[in-house]
Amino acid sequence: MPSLKELVKRESRFVSGHRLCGGCGAGIVMRLVLLAIDKPVIASCATGCVEVATTIFPYSAWKIPWVHSAFENSASTISGVEAAYRVFKREGKIDKEIVFVAFGGDGGTHDIGLQALSGAAERNHNVLYVCYNNQAYMNTGIQRSGATPKYAHTTTSPVGKVIPGKIQWQKNLVEIMVAHGIPYAATSIPGRWNDLVSKVEKAVKIEGFKYIEVLSPCRLGWPHEPELTLEISRLAVETCIWPLYEVVEGKYRLTYKPKEKKPVIEWFKLQGRFRHLLLPENAHLLEEIQKEVDRRWEELLKKCES
Amino acid sequence: MEKKMTWKELIVGDILEGGTSLKFKTGNWRSKRPVHIPEKCINCLICWISCPDDAIIVDKENGKFLSFNYDYCKGCGICAYECPKKAIEMKEETV
Asked: N or C: which end of chain A has fewer CB within 10 A?
């Protein structure tokens, strides 16, 4: 894996002047993904924060060929580009190695783009799909998504007398992607740059469909102090809410194990959307989440051992 | 019957130049300004890799911190928080 001194020599392909919020996790994710790839890249992007904030007409923060697509079809768009590339290559019209990347938020990946994503994975296009998961529809005003964690406050799952935030569990899309039998799936965070860079580097060397899901803290929707973006992503790992692992050809491997597993409250207490969980009358909700996090962690450990 | 248009005759969509957001300065969003303390800096580049706005200028040859790019820095404070040597301080922005 390249050191920071080597990475700094690479050209910035996700440049300044984009209009993501100050302290946005997704901006860091985009930079890290592109820095990790030392080949020409063609990317597509689903509608979402990144799409609307980085390509406001007539500006673009992308110094690569970048295709705008709709909310649901980032994976299909990049599939088409990759298929066209294969034809050009076969016909001898192009010979350079190009890496194909699709970006999508959790809305454009877990919910609206799931069909396109599943199709692209099933056809096993030689593509890397990166989901920056900020756990709600942040760009349209913090509506709940399939990736919003249980009991989180969003504008469509408001905490009040009726419900204590979103009442369902979030779906585990990494497992859904593993079930497609793709050659590589992984989770990552922006707070461990070497974890994300090494996973992207590893993924693009593998032939076939690759999926990396990166937890992307949202200062506006979670909300949290902007300087804590990376710290909060690391705390999600330390509490085992967001374990770092990869699945290569169906084989699970934990890529980081917290020295000491922290209680989930450590992650919740820095975020406004979970503020109600700190109240004494909601202690049972907190306990319920802790139990489920523990169960999922043990389940993952078993998968990694076998 | 009228002959239908083939894909070759379709109008090409908008193709814009890349990297043009550099023309849009986001530095005026800032309410706090990062200030570099050179005596404490060990040039580890953690600030550079952590910046969502690519607003830290580094000498590409020797990997040394040069300056903040105040044209784009939004003042989020991630660099100051992440710096292992506390070599970045956030100060109130003055107009």
From this structure: C
Look at residue A72 and tell me whether its pLDDT is greater than 80: yes
Please list every residue in chain A whose beta carbon sits closer than 8 Å to the beta carbon of residue B44: 4
Bridging pattern class, strands A99-105 and A184-188: unpaired
Taking 90 as the threshold, does the pLDDT of residue A254 lie above it?
Answer: yes
Provide the pLDDT confidence category of residue A306 given band limits of 50, 70 and 90: confident
Flag whether B68 is in a domain: yes
| CB-closest option in B22, B44, B81 to A16 | B22
Quote ipTM for the complex. Answer: 0.94
C-alpha distance from A198 to closest chain B C-alpha (Å): 14
Q: Which of A16, A44, A132, A214 to mutate to test the interface with B (most CBs of B within 10 A)?
A: A16
Identity of the residue in A5, A16, A23 whose CB atom sits nearest the CB atom of B78: A23
How many domains, chain B?
A: 1
Q: Which residues of B touch A50 (CB under 8 A)?
A: none
Flag whether pLDDT at A153 surpasses 90: yes
- Report how far residue A271's alpha carbon sits from residue A206's, in angstroms, rounded to the nearest whole number: 37
Q: Answer yes or no: is B80 within a domain.
A: yes
Burial class (CB in 10 A: 0-12, 13-18, 19+), A9: exposed
- Which residue of B24, B30, B77 is in closest CB contact with A227? B77
Instruction: Print the domain residue range for B92.
Output: 37-95
Residues 6+ positions from A187 with CB-CB distance below 8 Å: A174, A212, A213, A214, A215, A242, A243, A244, A245, A246
B28 has a pLDDT exceeding 80:
yes
Nearest-CA distance from A55 to chain B in Å?
8
The CATH number assigned to the domain holding B52 equals: 3.30.70.20
pTM of the model: 0.95
Report yes or no on B30 lying in a domain. Answer: no
| Cα(A223)–Cα(A244) distance, integer angstroms | 23
> Taking CB atoms and an 8 Å limit, are A4 and B45 in contact across chains?
yes
pLDDT of residue B15: 85
| A241-257 mean pLDDT | 97
